[in-house]
TrEMBL record:
Domain Major facilitator superfamily (MFS) profile: 18-433
InterPro entries, per database record: MFS_dom, MFS_sugar_transport-like, MFS_Sugar_Transporters, MFS_trans_sf, Sugar_transporter_CS
A Pfam family assignment: Sugar_tr
Lineage of the organism: Bacteria, Bacillati, Actinomycetota, Actinomycetes, Pseudonocardiales
Protein name: MFS transporter
TM helices/strands, residue ranges: 20-43, 55-72, 84-103, 109-130, 142-169, 175-194, 253-274, 286-307, 319-337, 343-366, 378-399, 405-427
Main location: membrane
Keywords tagged on the record: Membrane, Transmembrane, Transmembrane helix
Compartments, record wording: Cell membrane
Organism per entry: Saccharopolyspora oryzae
Amino acid sequence: MSTAIIDDAPFGRFHKKMFLLTSGGQFIDGYLLSIIGVVVLGMSKDLGMTASEEGLVGAAALVGLFIGGLIFGRLTDRIGRQLLFTLHFIAIAVASIASTFVTDPTQVVLLRVVIGIALGADYAIGSSLLSEWLPRTQRGRVMGMLIMAWFVGATAAYLVGYALISLLGDEAWRWALGSAAVPAIIFTLARIGTPESPRWLINRGRADEAHAVLRRVYGDAATPEAIGELASDEQARGIGVFDVFRGDYLKRMVFVCLFWLLQIVPLFAIYSFGPTILEAFKLSGGNASIIGSALISLLFLLGCVPALRLIETRGRRPLVVWSFALMTVPLAVLGFAPSAPVGVVLVCFCAYALFSGGPSILEFIYPTELFPTEIRATAVGIGTAVSRVGAAIGTYLLPIGLDRIGVGATMLIMAAITLVGFVVSAAMAPETRGRRLVDVSGGAAVPQPAETTRAS
C-alpha cells in the first residue's frame, strides 16, 4: 500500500501536537481580526477617525494577508515549511506591542498591514505542513478543525475586549491591541523544533533527511521499503509555480479562490464590525453589542461541529453546496426586514453562523488537497490572497455602507454574494473524501461535479 507510513498511519500524539501548534496561527488570526471590531469605537473617538479611516483600519490586516499569502506561499514551497513555521510570529508580537504606542490612524494601519503579512504567511506554512503529515482518514476532520481555533481566538478577543473596556473605558483599545503579543510569544516558543515535512524533503531530493524525520516520528515503522514507497509518490514531477495557472490546476485554483472569497467576504465583514452591525439593528446599550458578538462567535464555532462529521460521512461537495444555500436565507431575511424584532435579528445571525460551518472548515481542506507538494503552499497562499482582497474591500466598505445605504441594503448585498457562492460550488466543487493526498492532488483524476453529485 503506497505511502502507508503517512496516509495509513494511526492518528496519534504527534499528530495532535502538530494540530495544536498549527492551530495557534488560526487562534491569533481570529483574535487579531476580531479585536479590532471590539475597540474600533474607542480608538475612533481617541484618534478622531472618520468612517473611511475606520474601514482602512479594519481592512489593513487583510491587505497584509494578501501580501503575506502570495510571498510566503511560494517561499514555503522553495525553502521548506519548518524554517518559516516559527519566525513570523515574532513580527506579530513586535507589531502588537508597538500598537499600544500609536498616535494617529496611519500608524495603526501600517502596523496592521505588518501583522497581516505574518498571518498570511502562516496560512500557507501551517496548513501545508500539517496536511502533509496527516493520515487520510483524519485529514478532512483535523484540517477542518483549524478554523475552530480561529473562532476560539475570535471569541477570546470579544471577551478580553469586553473585560478591558469594563475596567479601563475608552483607553482599553491600546491594551487590547497589544494583548495579541502574549499568544504570539507562547506559540513562537512552542513551535521551535517542529519537524520538516518528509513529503517536501523527498520532493527536493533529500531522502536521507526524510528518513531521519520519519524515524524520529514513527520509529521502526519507517523502514527503507516505506521510504521507497513515499519516494515513489513524492518524487519531483517537474511541476512549477506557473502550473497553478494551467490546465486542470487552473480550474482547481479558480474554484478555490472563488469559493473562499465568496464565503469570507460576508463573514469577515460581520466579524470585523460585529458590534457596529448590532448597533445598527438597535442592539447596542453599552457593552451589550460586544457580548452579543461573542455569542455569535461561539455559534460560528458550534456550526463547525456538525460540519466536521459531515465532511467525512457525506463528503466535501454536498457540504459546501448546501451550506452556501442555507447561509443565503438569513442574510436575505435581514436585508428585507431590517426593522424586524430583536428576536428575529438574533435568530438570523445565529442561523448564518451555524450554516457557515461547512465552507469555513473547507478553507483549509480544499486548497491543501487539490495541489501537489511542489505547489501546495503556493496554491494556499494564492487562495488566501484572493480571498483577502475581497474581504478587505468588503470590510472597508461595510461601515460606509451602513452609514450611506443602511443596514437592510448592506445585508442584501451580503446575501447576493453568498448566493453566488452557492452557484459556483454547485458548478465546480469536486469530491476528495478518503483519498490519498498524492492521488487527490494530481496523481489521479479528481471526480468531477456531476459524478460526485450522483454519489452524494
